[in-house]
Amino acid sequence: MILSLFSRKAKANEAITTALYDVIVAAARQPYLYSDIDVPDSPLGRYEMVSLHVFLFMRRIKGRTPALKMIGQEVTDEFFRDVDHSLRELGIGDSGIPKRMKKLARMFYGRVESYDKALQTNDLPALAAALARNVRPDTSGWTGASALAGYTIEAALFLENQPDDDIARGQLAFPDAGTQALQNEERGAK
């Protein structure tokens, strides 16, 4: 009897985690990010976009309820399981996975630190520089960096307006990157 209660709770948490992570991945795969601002549509480019959206989610729930803290840990765990799975699909052998996972985890937490610092100080140029350094290290003067930084700021604000209770139930939304860019262009033209 008691074990069935834990099993139901675990399944409910898994469903919430899956729902949230699916929204995060869908936001990271918005065509605008790849076609219009030139994020590389490659395993590393997709990793960068999922990392960015996981960061935005984690930033949104930071310091909130214990339930959200637990959900945040589960979403982060799901992200790293997804990265592990992707590495295996790319043909990385079992012996190479731990080393690469450590490197990718360090990369992720380094990004979290630089993006969070730029958002806390509302420093758009620093955020754009960090995004350019991480998303397009192969290209100097990447013009998509400022657009991605603008989207990141808009997404952070958008997420702040979503109730904790909705997120705890697995309901989350990100703004449409293309629509945000068009609105920013229209504001700049006025």
Description:
This is Ubiquinol-cytochrome C chaperone. Belongs to the UPF0174 family. Belongs to the CBP3 family. It comes from Phyllobacterium myrsinacearum. It holds the Pfam family Ubiq_cyt_C_chap. Residues 36-174 form the Ubiquinol-cytochrome c chaperone domain. The protein is mainly α and 190 residues long. It has one domain. It is built from 9 helices and no strands. The chain has helices at residues 2-28, 31-35, 43-61, 66-89, 97-120, 124-135, 144-160, 164-168, 177-189. It is globular, with a radius of gyration of 17 Å. The chain starts with a helix and ends with a helix.
Overview in brief:
This protein has 190 residues and is mainly α. It has helices spanning 2-28, 31-35, 43-61, 66-89, 97-120, 124-135, 144-160, 164-168, 177-189.
Q: Mean pLDDT score, rounded?
A: 85
Number of helices: 9
How many domains?
1
Task: Specify the biggest β-sheet.
Answer: none
Strand portion: under 5%
Low-confidence regions:
1-8
What Rg, in angstroms, do the CA atoms define? 17 Å
Oligomer: single chain
Q: What is the rounded distance between the termini? A: 65 Å
Question: How would the global form be characterised?
Answer: globular
Structure summary, number of beta strands: 0
Structural class: mainly alpha
- SSE ordering: HHHHHHHHH
Helix content: over 70%
